[in-house]
TrEMBL record, chains A, B:
Homodimer. Belongs to the class-II aminoacyl-tRNA synthetase family. Type 1 subfamily. InterPro entries: Aa-tRNA-synt_II (IPR004364), aa-tRNA-synth_II (IPR006195), aa-tRNA-synth_II/BPL/LPL (IPR045864), Asp-tRNA-ligase_1 (IPR004524), Asp-tRNA-ligase_1_N (IPR047089), Asp/Asn-tRNA-synth_IIb (IPR002312), AspRS_core (IPR047090), GAD-like_sf (IPR004115). Keywords: Aminoacyl-tRNA synthetase, ATP-binding, Cytoplasm, Ligase, Nucleotide-binding, Protein biosynthesis. The lineage of its organism: Bacteria, Bacillati, Bacillota, Clostridia, Eubacteriales. GO terms for molecular function: aspartate-tRNA ligase activity; ATP binding; catalytic activity, acting on a protein; nucleic acid binding; transferase activity. PANTHER family: ASPARTATE--TRNA LIGASE, MITOCHONDRIAL (PTHR22594:SF5), ASPARTYL/LYSYL-TRNA SYNTHETASE (PTHR22594). Residues 194-197 are annotated as: Aspartate. Residues 145-552 form the Aminoacyl-transfer RNA synthetases class-II family profile domain. GO terms for cellular component: cytoplasm. This is Aspartate--tRNA ligase. One of its GO terms (biological process) is aspartyl-tRNA aminoacylation. It comes from Anaerofustis stercorihominis DSM 17244. It is found in: Cytoplasm. L-aspartate binds at residues 170, 216, 445, 486.
Length: 585, 585
């Protein structure tokens, strides 16, 4: 292939096939950059040396497909091109065959192309010719290969689970597939192989994995696609440390082999509660400070009810110190920050700036005692030039607001971050979240997540305090994977259903076949799933999930290249026993 | 694991986890067969040596999950069990922990189980505990690993193509997925990644593969599932021999590494026309003879219009000689054979038996001249005891009837076949089949299959004579894979559409995005897809596709374990803008 030719091949006759990246006619000599998957090779057609080839070369255009042969020669030194691998070589052409011509492409096949994304997605087959996305896909393929070889060597069996599954009533929205043979019934495309992989453990398969498409019919955010890929695995006869160990070795191997990056092992672990207290997030970006701190003890008796009120109602007052940024934010900027935290449910955002001269600027200090203000600034370790942002509310709102504000400010102010990747296991998640609307506990992961042994006795008395054997792998503030040990005891499972308020009938309806399986001898088991798309995004350093998927969809679930979804015939719908009753405009 | 323990471990203390396969209480001593994925280990609990363990052992039942530790010791010689790998060893127990109890399983976890398939599918998690299906899945995983490693080493890139695709108007019936965001529109689950893999070649990916689920909403036959798995690949800058070469090396590697079977390479090739003439099938089972032979030249002028008529109308009279089977078939058996060929469209089945004494028995010889009868028997090389079966009809009916009759008789009479695997490439398929109903040509593979270079000039004048660069890999009469070189020239593509009678608009509607892609520089390309399920069926020697799939569906598209498909809520349908108008009883 083009880029596989080296100086060792000088003087050799070679045959290459590829696309015309560029053609320069210098009058009597035509230089062509021929591109294949590997890279570029320069071809030379000289009218004096080979008239026939030269005449062919005169008529080719960009993106024509050629098959050429010739001799590998050294370029003149002034023509060396350090930007391409074969930059010191060129091919003196003997033959040139045009395998296919090409219309003028509507986008420029080069990294400098600035066509809008819609055009690029419509002409995805051309966009994929560019180095960046092509190399992303190569990285993706290599990563899958490394993952599979590692898991094979660790005794994991790759086992396929069904795509035409049972619709699940919990969790995100399913994509449904009407059954023609059993009219009126529907398959659900899997949101994950969760139940099936647990069934495989019940079946004695011991260790399972699969790199598998999963489906969620959600409204799309920047980093979501309706179909996405998981590295999904499950192990029997294990506890938390066993699952963490094998996955730590897996990611270490991937990052080393794919981008030659050494992950420090063992990877740091942080309890969920610490992650929330310090970073206001269960996926903290630990590459920089600006950590949250709690002011509740200082302010619980203060006269300013905006602070004291939430504390009395079980909430808290917490803050972050944006070091040295007192002057960075104008009043208008700060108003924007107030609006920003409101999107996370906060009623407001208090702030205290310490001017460079040590004086204090704030709209709230008038409501506080001097001691209280000093206490806040002491705890913030505030120095001249700092600005402290404070939120008082229910804990969830405080964490969400400040956790996100921290990231927002870091981005705005281009705060310096650690280089490389900060890996972190977040562990010991709560088993349950209390749903204020439904006035009941809900499972934070799913109802099969095992409680921590030491919290088992609180399952009935203080369910809100029970922690789960659940763990997420977080990298630079991105959740790359997560999982848990599952319940394998019928007794514990029943208690968890009681906390969730499920009747036997409900449990049976929702999870019938797994519950049935659990009755026939279940090994302790647990597992994890990585988001492959996110893993590749980290490896190739992009924030656009569409850069790592060959044929992605837009935010409204459309493939601009193939024009899916599309209208189908009445006959097809009739065969399925369904009718369209509501159509998009 | 259980079966990993060898005599080298004698005297060692080991810990094992698994399921109770069997428990024998000999009074004071309890023997337990502990089973894990690897196999069986015998445990011994002796009341005198360890009272606590013995008491635990007294209360366990089949399929309980245990964690045990103890010392590896040699069994008494009279207790050696040659049927299990660890048959000379046992574990003298120090500890035994019951990790989970188990209800009495509704099926027997042993190869001797004879529960009906419906019960086994309902309790699939128990059925999977049996050696046979478990080992099939292990073989399947190993096969995928061998395939991937081979294709990786050959420069193929694993690239994922979408599951939520555009419904395709040609071919088998699509499964449809209603879009919620674009109400009234539908995705189609892919019948194969055909168009996308061609697009990837247009994109310059050079070599692609994927082990991928495909979907066809057909009524199920014995060896079909609504979702099945393909090893799908495509290559650029290749012709037929290149594709055949790499795939030949692939299957050779798979059969060697998985079952230590040497495939003779190069694999024999046979033109489609020869396969039909000799075996009446494009997937001939070449492990035995009983080949078809043509009698048309002998009988074209005979007075028996049942023979002469079809020949005059462009059909033929062909026959097979069931050697030595004249006495094997009773008159009733022969009547059943007549009924059998009628299912393939034949109007009847003529026969001539040569008795052991050389006399002839037949109902048709009275309509033939002596010369004609002798001619038939000569051509059949008929000897005493043989019976010749004759079909006269349109060629398609003659081939179908005799091709299938040949297999049917071979099975009934248990004809001796070659041992092992007869691999065969069937090549040079016709481009087009004439559809008598629609009075037009249809593509035999798909409209992007390339014609053979030497037949190009017949594309417009004699389309029925044009052969395609298409090839199937047939093993013991089973089509294990197939593919073709694709058209990469717009001009040829247009001619093919003309033959098929597509208007520009139709072509655009049916294949729009591929046609568009083909305009921007397309490399010559081709590929192949293997049926993974069928490959595994051959490797593990089963005729039941459900034996090689972890969670298969029944003939009416139902998963008996999870009870998919199922009814969904009105709210879900409303969100999708559809309504059920026809329900199963």
């Amino acid at each position: 292939m083009c880029a596989e030719i080296t100086k060792e091949d000088l003087g050799k006759k070679v045959t290459l096939s590829g696309w015309v990246q560029r053609r320069r006619d210098l009058g009597g000599v035509i230089f062509i950059h021929l591109r294949d998957r590997s890279g570029i090779m320069q071809l030379v057609a000289n009218s004096e040396l080979n008239k026939e080839v030269f005449e062919t070369a005169e008529n080719i255009r960009n993106e024509y497909v050629l098959k050429v042969s010739g001799e590998v020669v050294l370029r003149d030194e002034e023509n060396f091109n350090p930007n391409i691998e074969t930059g010191e070589l060129e091919l003196k052409l003997d033959t040139m065959e045009v395998l296919d011509s090409a219309n003028t492409p509507p986008i420029y096949i080069d990294e400098s192309d600035n066509a809008n994304e819609a055009t690029r997605l419509e002409y995805r087959f051309l966009d994929l010719r560019k180095d960046k996305i092509k190399n992303n896909l190569i990285t993706r393929a290599k990563t899958c290969s490394v993952v599979r070889n590692f898991l094979d060597s660790e005794g994991f069996l790759e086992i396929e689970t069904p795509f035409l599954g049972k619709p699940t009533p919990e969790g995100a929205r399913d994509f449904l597939v009407p059954s023609r043979i059993r009219k009126g019934k529907f398959f659900g495309l899997p949101q994950s192989p969760q139940l099936f992989k647990q069934i495989l453990m019940v079946s004695g398969m011991d260790r399972y994995y699969q790199i598998v498409k999963c489906f969620r019919d959600e409204d799309l955010r920047q980093d979501r696609q309706p179909e996405f890929t998981q590295i999904d695995l499950e192990m029997s006869f294990v506890d938390v440390d066993d699952v963490i160990d094998v996955n730590e070795r897996l990611v270490k191997k991937v990052f080393k082999e794919i981008i030659d990056y050494d992950i420090e092992a063992p990877i740091m672990r942080m309890e969920f509660s610490e992650a929330m207290d310090r970073f206001g997030s269960d996926k903290p970006d630990t590459r920089f400070g600006m950590e949250l701190f709690d002011l509740s003890d200082l302010l619980k008796d203060c006269k300013f009810n905006v602070f004291a009120g939430p504390i009395k109602n079980g909430g808290s007052v917490r803050a972050i110190n944006a070091k040295g940024l007192a002057d960075f934010f104008s009043r208008r900027d700060i108003d924007a920050l107030v609006d920003y935290v409101k999107t996370y449910g906060a009623k407001g955002l208090a702030w205290i700036a310490v001017n460079e001269d040590g004086s204090i600027k704030s709209q709230i200090t008038k409501f506080l005692s001097e001691e209280e203000t000093k206490g806040i600034l002491d705890r913030a370790k505030a120095e001249n030039g700092d600005i402290v942002f404070i939120v008082a509310d229910k804990n969830k709102v405080v964490y969400d607001s400040l956790g996100n504000l921290r990231l927002h400010i870091a981005k705005k102010a281009e705060i310096k971050m650690d280089e490389g990747f900060n890996f972190l296991w977040v562990t010991n998640f709560p088993m349950f979240e209390y749903d204020e609307n439904e006035k009941r506990y809900k499972a934070m992961h799913h109802p099969f997540t095992a409680p921590m042994d030491e919290d088992l006795d609180k399952l009935e008395s203080e369910p809100g305090e029970v922690r789960a054997k659940a763990y997420d792998l977080v990298v630079n503030g991105v959740e790359m994977g997560g999982g848990s040990i599952r319940i394998h005891s019928g007794e514990v499972q029943q208690k968890v259903f009681n906390v969730l308020g499920f009747s036997d009938e409900e449990a049976e309806n929702k999870f019938g076949f797994l519950l049935k399986a659990l009755k026939y001898g279940t090994p302790p088991h647990g597992g994890l799933a990585f988001g492959l798309d996110r893993m590749i995004m980290l490896l190739v350093d992009t924030e656009n999930i569409r850069d790592v998927i060959a044929f992605p969809k837009t935010q409204n679930h459309t493939c601009l290249m193939s024009d899916a979804p599309s209208i189908v015939s009445e006959e097809q719908l009739e065969e399925l026993g369904i009718e369209v009753v509501d159509e998009e405009e």
